[in-house]
Structure to design on (70 residues):
């Protein structure tokens, strides 16, 4: 049986939790810890669509396939 429902809403989450990005070094004077990274090249003066950024996570339709009814 395939089951469709709404996933749990997680609210506004950062790039690490939302997209599984890796974080920066936590020691040795680094000030780059949980940021999403570069926004892209200078030339187009915009951020390209699809860039993995922080935002609202969860609360979307999800389907789990091949569940067995007990």
């Amino acid at each position: 049986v395939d089951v469709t429902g709404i996933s749990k809403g997680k609210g506004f989450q950062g790039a690490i939790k939302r997209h599984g990005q890796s974080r920066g070094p936590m020691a040795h004077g680094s000030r780059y810890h949980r940021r999403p990274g570069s926004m892209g090249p200078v030339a187009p003066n915009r951020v390209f669509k699809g860039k993995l950024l922080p935002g609202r996570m969860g609360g979307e339709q999800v389907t789990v396939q091949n569940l067995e009814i007990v």
User: Anything to note?
Assistant: Strands lie at 3-6, 11-13, 55-57, 61-64. The helical segments are 15-19. The chain has one domain: 1-70.
